[in-house]
Structure formats: C-alpha cells, structure tokens
Amino acid sequence: MHDIVLKEKDSLIYKLGFLIVIFMPLIAVFNYIPIYSFGQLTIRGTDIIFILAYLLIINTVVLEGKIPTPVLVILALIMLIFVFSIFLESYTEVNKNKLAQDFRFYQTVLWGGIGYFYINSERKFNVFLTSIILSLSVMSCFSIYQYITMPGLHRVAGFFSYANASGLINTSGINGFNEIGALFSLSLLCILYKYKNFSHNKHLIIYILAFFLNLIGLVLTQSRSAILAFVLLIILGGLFSSIKIAKNNVFVKKYIVKSSIILIVLVFITVSLILPRLNLNRIYVTFDPGSSANISMVTRLSTWENGYKTWMQSEWPFLFGYGSGAAESQSTTENFFLDSLNIRGLIGTSIVLFLFLYPLFLCRGKNKEIKIITIFLAILVSLTGNVLVDPYYGGVTFIILYSGGINQYYLSGELKSDENNYSSSDF
C-alpha cells in the first residue's frame, strides 16, 4: 500500500485527521449526549471532532501553501449562501431556531471537505464504509434491546428516541426516526455495495449478520421515507444489474423473473402478516383514515402545498428566498427542498444541488456507484424531512460523496495512490 508521502512533521497530523474521519460515525452514535448548549445550538461529540479536523486542515494548508480545489469550492459556496442569508435576515425578524438549522446544514456539507482531504484512496474509503456499518449495527442492537425490554413500543431509533402508545419520547432532544432510518438505509446499501465489489467467502457470515441487524434497525424506526427509499433503490439497482447481466442470456432472464416474483411475494407476506403482529405497522396503516400515520401523511401533503404557494408568491422569494428569519420561512414544510426554496430561493437551492452533484464530475473508479446511490437516497429521504441538517446522517453522506480519491490532491509535492494495490479482502 502506498499512501500520501508527507513531511515527517505533518504525518502525525494527517494520521490524526484520518482517524477523526474514520471514527466519526462511531462517535456520532453517542450524539444523544449533549456536551454544551450555545443559544439554540447543542454541542455534541461530532461538533468537537469537526472543529479539530478543520484546525488540522488549516495547519496543513498553511504549511504546504496550497488547498485542494474541491475544498475551496465547498468553502466558497457555503460562504456565499451564508453571507446572502445574513443579508436577507438583516431585513427580517431573526428566527434563531432556523439559523441553527442552517448552521447544521452548512456543517454537514463541510464534512465533505474533511472527507476529501483525509480519505484519498478506495482502501481508506472502504474502511470508512465499514465504520458506518459498524456504528449502525451497534445502534440496531440497542434498538432491538429496547424493543424487547420495553413492551408496547412501535417505533425505536436507537439511542435517540422511541414511541409507544402514549406518544414520542425523546432521549436526545431531537426526533431521530427519519434521520436514523435514513442512516440504516444508507448502511444497508453500503453493505450490498461492499459485498458486490469486495466480498470473499470468509466474510459472507459477517455481511449477512450486518445486513439483518441493519434491516431490523430500519424496520424498528418505522420511517416510511427511509424504508420506501431503500426498497425503491434496491428494485432500481436490481433492474439495472439484471438488464446488464441478462442482456443476451435467456436462461438468466427467466431466473431473474422467477426470483423477482418470489421476492415480491415474500415482501408482501412480511408486510401484511408479520409486521402488524409485531406492532410495526406504520406503513401498513398509512392509508387507514384516522390513524396517526394517515394524519401525518395528510398533514405533510398540506404543508407541502402551503410551502410551495409561499415560495411562488412573488419574484424576489422565488429567486432569492425569504431568509431564515422571515415569518414565511419559520415553519418547516417537512421537505428539505421546499424549505430550502423558501429560505434560499431558486438560486441558493441550485447551489445546494450543485454541491450534491459536484463530486460526480470529479469521481473516478468503482466507488462512483455508491456515490450515485447515496445522492438518490439523500434526495428521496429529504422529500419528507430535513434529515440533511442532522450532523450524523448529513455528515456521513457528504463524506461519502467527496472522499475516496475522487481527484488526486498532493501534499509535499507527491501523491501515490494505493488504489491499484487495493485488497478485496479488507472488510
């Protein structure tokens, strides 16, 4: 394996930064423990390592006299959105809660710069995916423990929150169902990606165990957006792979059709018979009039309509938004993109979308597949919530998008990628 060749005085700094990124998902598991409150912001473990990582980057940039272009692009665009948002808020009554959400979203994007700086090869990228899977497996074990030991629960989001017949109970001060559900979906997709590209028979049991742990964790969150997004991406991914494999093979086509029918039947039986008996029926009763799940869906559709009308009121908010502090943008639409259009307008939201797609223009190698999947997942789960402002889900999403050697950056004049020496035996 060949790594970035650094000056001896910088090597420890680089290694520390790399460890911060690798352990970020595991530290985020304990984000339910607040460290300090600063206004509307609650400082958590990931905030501490985020600041430390950027201090290390600044140190390296000062010593080397150069900064990677993608990191510079991220910083410049975030600064542009932030400054314009402050300009708008100077004409409105400031909503500190919305300002805190804006700050959180900017922070999640900036995690991409940290990932780009310290995860510069597919081998390191693979280690980071393993860290995500491990952290969500730990989360799932706790969810299972809660579900077994606390009768009557019908929603569990690991350490963060759970719900029983009396309603939602937060253990972290945030509603984590959609966020943790999105994380479980992302972890499951990472498992499938790793198994497809890097699996060895000796790892089969580990992959199966991790997959079912994360699948149980996803089901226990009862997050409809996360579950449906995962199912949709699996179906689309299976179709594309099947078309590619079975292009000129009639036998394989028949096998795929039969397997798909069996899978659909099994899913139908699971949803219709098993989950309702376990009191995990939020999706099942969504279209049952009067149920809490149905009321939630109807309310959300109404807020989407109101949010869209608010955004379209006149040319100025259509293009530039109202800012975080405006009365028109103070209530969430439970849709990240509609909220962004109301706060930042079409221009600001276009910049946000560019930050999503920019890594694809830089990406090379086999990890482009998981980056595309990550983008689609983030878009789907963001349609029903502001999950990207969560430092856990949003942070790992942007690290995946911007890391993995997407564009070689050199320090001390030399970069030797270990991509060609990547070992598929690394779990």
Largest beta sheet, briefly?
Answer: 3 strands, antiparallel
> Residue share in helices?
55-70%
* Shape, per Cα inertia axes: globular
Question: Unreliable segments (pLDDT under 50, ≥5 consecutive)?
Answer: 1-10, 407-426
Average predicted local confidence, pLDDT: 77
Terminal CA distance reads 16 Å
Number of strands: 5
User: Which class of secondary structure composition applies to the elements?
Assistant: mainly alpha
Strand order of the largest sheet: 3-4-5
- What is the C-alpha radius of gyration, as a whole number of Å? 22 Å
Tell me what the structure shows.
Helix content is 66%, strand content 4%. It has 14 helices and 5 strands. The strands form 2 sheets. It has a 3-stranded antiparallel β-sheet with strand order 3-4-5. It has a two-stranded antiparallel ribbon with strand order 1-2. The longest helix has 28 residues. It is globular, with a radius of gyration of 22 Å. The two termini are 16 Å apart. 39% of the residues are buried.
